[in-house]
Amino acid sequence: MEYVRLNDGNKIPTIGFGVFTIPNDGPTYEAVLQALKAGYRHIDTAAAYFNEEDVGKAVKGSGIPREEIFITSKLWLQDHGYEAAKKGIARSLRKLDLGYIDLYLVHQPYGDVAGAWKAMEEAKAAGQIRSIGVSNMSPALWNKFVPGFETKPAVNQVEFNPLFQQKEIRKLMAETDTKLEAWYPLGHGDKSLLTNPVIEKLSKKYGKNAGQVILRFEVQEGVITLPKSTNPERIRTNLDVFDFTLTDEEMDEMRGLDTGKGSHNPDAPGVEEMLRGAFVIED
Ligand code: A2P
To answer: How many helices and strands (H and E) does the chain possess?
Structure first.
């Protein structure tokens, strides 16, 4: 496994296992155990995934020392604001039950983000959280919130794949050395990505599948990538991308695939309201 150094000095495994939509009470426990057995050391959950308990149980059940596993979780919108965020952080800590959280993110950047961030900074200072970051920030949302932060975000977790390379937000993030984390890094099964001729050509050249070529591109681009799979073979092979290197020309070819368009636009009218109504996190 390779690591990326964050702007606060902590290091994060460059490939993580995402557990969005995997149910609690069994399936997430099994999936995380399997991922850890396959060699993953970075698990990405959220309060709004409703499976923090299973993630914690799997880490404890794995027999792998806690400090060798990197755990990310995220604060949901209902917990924005300083006092509410303190409760949200305490709830995630209790559900995971792993002593501390490696990385905690503002899951959706709306409402009282400044208050939530202050509570996250305090939890970081208290050692409950090691690194803090944001998610789903477009350039407009970044400019609205981040200049007022005392601690600059370690990461911004956004949709990213070769067809949607987020060039604008990456320019802003470079100014604070904020690393990009990719959700939907394989285009969420988009066939036009997986069968793209450039990717098929590289796939043949290196004897790797399309997913592995895409993940290799992302790793070489300095992106922390969170592929999702429920297939044991792909869970394993998606980690097997450290034994080949794309050339500079091939990286440029991959960069040329960007269309500038993805599936999620955080600035679109109605998105905030839709997300606010999407989940209720209970104690
Ligand atoms: P499966 O669960 O059957 O492996 P994303 O991470 O962008 O959301 O993409 C997840 C989708 O991509 C899932 O449908 C997953 O299906 C599929 N997938 C995961 N790994 C690969 C791979 N190496 N090649 C092709 N498809 C993959």
So the answer is: 12, 10
Q: Which of 218, 228, 239 to mutate to test the pocket of ligand 1 (most atoms within 8 A of CB)?
A: 228
Residue 21 has pLDDT above 90, yes or no: no
Pocket test for ligand 1, best of 161, 229, 231 (most atoms within 8 A of CB): 229
Q: Residue count of the chain, please give it.
A: 283
User: What would the mean pLDDT of 201-211 be, rounded to a whole number?
Assistant: 98
pLDDT score recorded for residue 81: 98
CA distances from 232 to 16, 34, 238 (A): 15, 8, 10
Quick one: what percent of the chain has pLDDT higher than 70?
Answer: 100
Ligand 1 interacting residues, C-beta cut-off 6 A:
184-189, 194, 209-211, 227-231, 234, 238
All domains of the chain in start order, with CATH: 3-276 (3.20.20.100)
CB 115 within 8 A of CB 81: yes
